[in-house]
Design brief:
This is Outer membrane protein beta-barrel domain-containing protein. The protein is mainly beta and 217 residues long. Helix content is 7%, strand content 60%. The protein is built from 1 helix and 13 strands.
């Protein structure tokens, strides 16, 4: 399914480039950090000595940089696609129910970071100096580090490719666009992670607001 989306996007670009006006933009963005208000997951319930509560406690501020291209269609519509880089950092909390000789500290903070390439493909409409966009995006992890790897019986089968959607609004002035976007993935936090074959998937979908600025080249 992911390859189909990418192939369609690339094919559409080649088809439309021959008869559409295209502009290229440099883009920067920042997404504020936040503390998710999710319910924790109780793991290893059948082993009281190893039982713990698992949860995400913080998502750090995230910065974005990249380029995108806009293909002008019949007024007032356009298509845009791009390639962005960002680093997503987050903290997990592991809180053991019982203390023993092996576990003398109940709470542990586990850090995780993910270097991500994002390919957004949007359909947009211009309304005077404003524009509104929405579409799909493909996420590709190119560097992943997690302190959860140090936990006994931990396994990660996280898919390097993920799909999500986004929408946003921007204001254009003299070749500069300032906007705000919201994006979300289709998979939950902890998807593909497990300990003793117990899933660590939380009731939390990765999503964020991003403040962006673009400049036409």
């Amino acid at each position: 399914m992911k390859k189909i989306y990418i192939s369609l996007a690339i094919g559409f670009v080649f088809i439309t480039c021959g008869f559409s006006q295209i502009t290229f933009n440099v883009a920067l963005g920042i997404s504020p950090g936040y503390h998710p208000g999710t319910v924790g997951l109780l793991v290893n319930k059948e082993k009281p000595d190893e039982e713990f509560m698992f949860n995400m406690t913080e998502v750090k501020v995230q910065y974005f940089a990249g380029m995108n291209a806009r293909l002008e269609l019949t007024e007032p519509f356009f298509v845009e696609f791009g390639l962005n880089y960002s680093k997503r950092s987050m903290n997990y909390q592991v809180e053991y129910s019982l203390l023993n000789d092996d576990q003398t500290i109940s709470q542990h903070q586990m850090k995780e970071s993910d270097h991500i390439l994002t390919v957004p493909v949007n359909l947009g409409v211009k309304i005077r100096a404003f524009d509104v966009v929405t579409g799909l995006r493909v996420f590709r992890s190119i560097g992943f580090i997690s302190e959860l790897d140090h936990m006994t019986a931990y396994k990660s089968n996280q898919n390097l490719f993920r799909i999500g959607w986004q929408g946003g609004i921007g204001y254009n002035l003299s070749g500069t666009r300032v906007g705000i976007e919201f994006d979300s993935q289709f998979s939950r936090v902890g998807n593909g992670k497990s300990i003793n074959n117990h899933s660590l998937e939380l009731m939390n979908i990765p999503s964020q607001f991003t403040f962006t600025i673009q400049r036409t080249l």
